[in-house]
Design goal:
homodimer, alpha+beta, 4-stranded mixed beta sheet
Amino acid sequence: MSRPEIEFWFDFGSTYSYLSTMRIEHEASLRGLQLRWKPFMLGAVFKALGWHGSPFAAQTAKGRHMWKDMARQCAKFGLAWRQPSSFPRRAVLPHRVVLLAEKEPWVADFCRAVMERNFVHDQDIDGTEAVSATLTSLGLPAREIIKAAEAPWNKQRLREQTDDALERGIFGAPTFFVGDEMFWGNDRMDDAMDLAQSIVPPGSKPPPMKHGPCR
Amino acid sequence: MSRPEIEFWFDFGSTYSYLSTMRIEHEASLRGLQLRWKPFMLGAVFKALGWHGSPFAAQTAKGRHMWKDMARQCAKFGLAWRQPSSFPRRAVLPHRVVLLAEKEPWVADFCRAVMERNFVHDQDIDGTEAVSATLTSLGLPAREIIKAAEAPWNKQRLREQTDDALERGIFGAPTFFVGDEMFWGNDRMDDAMDLAQSIVPPGSKPPPMKHGPCR
């Protein structure tokens, strides 16, 4: 039986995507939701919208507050946190790996490991060396996966997925989709999941009727 | 005995300030917090920061999503909602009235009434006619209050409070302060209140010691 779906659009360089990435697999599983990992290039979206990079970098007052907010949010969710010395970090190759591996059983582990490199260990996340170390730490065949991730057709998929993000109205990360309903920001993850849970997917059985003394 | 304080910085034109304004007096009262109403001119803050008006107006993708999010948030909090035909609405005189009346027993009622004019009844909120109608609906002496609100010293206070907002790092509304700790956005109201509740104000008695069989 098909489960209701939630799409998780994220960029490994995005602070608030870190909060969602660390929690979403567990939450989706608790709620019986099918999770779709949707990496995209947030910087390219900002550029296409005519914004000068991340609002957190372009707007200093907002950026200053974001770092305080992230420290508080991580404490609230029990997540480790170190403010990265480089922000936002580029993450082309990790995004390509996720696209390639979106249905592999290790995709969630990989996503969390990349995020922890960035926001806990303050290490670079892009490039062969960083991604190879991440994959190897998970016991995965790094060389083989990276070679496949860098195939022209897979590179093209990341460009297309970023174009899709723009077409669907995405302007930030994380963003969640439940059908055509868009929810922006880690603060809306629970609302998106509530909506997904309320939808009976096509082809599934309706909830059982209750028979009892009350009508 | 003094109660822990929470400062609520808001603009009557701001959508997310509507969500907080409708809930904050009740929540603060439940938690035993002293609430400080802090109106300021958000548009002047945006201008001083070099932003071209509200991000929701300047960034169309973000603005489009905001209207959907507001409808959903109002449904979630059980608040009435109509998307205003003019946004963001100017609110100089209502802000001056709040400054004048910040310690009056009717200040919360006035704030909610102004917000409902804007975001439920889609009516203008600035100017003598609108403010007079709002005050009269609450059984208050409109002419007298407006005259006092428009006194030069009170006009100057609104300018000074807006300058204070900038100096304290405010870049959006609503913003909450608990001591020097700043929280941005209706989504952080509960976190700000949690912090306020955890603080024992100076001059108050410490929580009673528990005596019992356990050490």
